[in-house]
Amino acid sequence: IKHLRSAADLDAETATLILDTAGEMAALSGREVKKLPALRGRTVVNLFYEDSTRTRISFEAAAKRLSADVINFSAKGSSVSKGESLKDTALTLQAMGADAVVIRHSASGAPHRLAGWVDGSVVNAGDGTHEHPTQALLDAYTMRSRLGRLDGLKVSIVGDVLHSRVARSNVLLLTTLGAQVTVVGPPTLIPLDVAAALSEKTQVSYDLDSVLPDSDVVMMLRVQTERMQDSYFPSAREYSRRYGLDVPRLKRLPEHAIVMHPGPMNRGMEIAPEVADSPRSTIVEQVANGVSVRMAVLYLLLGGK
Ligand code: CP
């Protein structure tokens, strides 16, 4: 494939190749190989129109470990504030010879538009409420390395499904790889049209306590208050009581089950601090795995040597 705009771009074979390649990248890093020459002479542009900590830094680290030249562009402080369009920004990057453009944008579909304007590969680093495919890949990698398989794994994705690009990409990728996914949350955050669309691939539940004992993985989602109207979200305390993962709920999980969160977290709202910091939590591991997975994505898209 040339671009990674959606988890739907990946069939099972390609997704597995990315996860296996990420494993090789991680093994090399573990053997103290700090830098590989695979993308020497290639240029990766990180084009971030929305804030990010993990994704931006890990794409930068991934490209640098593969010896690519990296240009970091953030909309703040650029000519975007003078009204320059995404297309004109893209053409400027194209003129500077970008081999890959990693884009985060508040508009769903921005990576698809960008791919029509630049010659290089486009990687979606999160577009609006639409998708975040490399997050899904690093999540799948983490599940596979902790639990040994994805096929048949029971994964519950919990919380603000309506606004979650992480949930959408995970549903697509995990079901492609054979996992059984259940999305869980309040009816206001999984409204009927969203539930109907998701029900083609997943189970939908509004009762967290009933799904916990049968989950191998519980993935908590950030409550995205910045994207909400009041009607979606009556009160933080009520939300936490019904859908927050606290210590009593952690005890309802099978012993082998893991707890995930893509970050950034609202500690005390969707996840209790004791749960986030518990040995069952893979939250820090997910961040570390993100570098290996993004190395694999850049390496495979750019045909690294
Ligand atoms: N998980 C994730 O996308 O985090 P950032 O917003 O910090 O990149």
TrEMBL record:
Any Pfam family from its record, for instance, is: OTCace
Q: What does the record give as the function of this protein?
A: Catalyzes the condensation of carbamoyl phosphate and aspartate to form carbamoyl aspartate and inorganic phosphate, the committed step in the de novo pyrimidine nucleotide biosynthesis pathway.
- Positions that bind L-aspartate: 82, 165, 222
Identify the residues that the record assigns to the Aspartate/ornithine carbamoyltransferase carbamoyl-P binding domain, covering every copy. Answer: 2-144
| NCBIfam families membership | asp_carb_tr, PRK00856.1
To which pathway does this protein belong? Pyrimidine metabolism; UMP biosynthesis via de novo pathway; (S)-dihydroorotate from bicarbonate: step 2/3
Q: Which organism is it from?
A: Actinoplanes oblitus
**A GO term for molecular function:** aspartate carbamoyltransferase activity
Q: Where does carbamoyl phosphate bind?
A: 54-55, 104, 132, 135, 263-264
Q: Which domain of life is it from?
A: Bacteria
User: Can you state which reaction this protein catalyses?
Assistant: carbamoyl phosphate + L-aspartate = N-carbamoyl-L-aspartate + phosphate + H(+)
Could you say which EC number(s) this protein's record lists? Answer: 2.1.3.2
Q: Which residues form the Aspartate/ornithine carbamoyltransferase Asp/Orn-binding domain?
A: 151-301
Q: Which PROSITE patterns match?
A: CARBAMOYLTRANSFERASE
Whom does it interact with, and what assembly results? Heterododecamer (2C3:3R2) of six catalytic PyrB chains organized as two trimers (C3), and six regulatory PyrI chains organized as three dimers (R2).
Q: Which SUPFAM superfamilies match?
A: Aspartate/ornithine carbamoyltransferase
Q: Which UniProt keywords apply?
A: Pyrimidine biosynthesis, Transferase
Concerning its family, UniProt says: Belongs to the aspartate/ornithine carbamoyltransferase superfamily. ATCase family.
Transferase as a keyword of this entry, yes or no, is yes
Q: Tell me what this protein is called.
A: Aspartate carbamoyltransferase
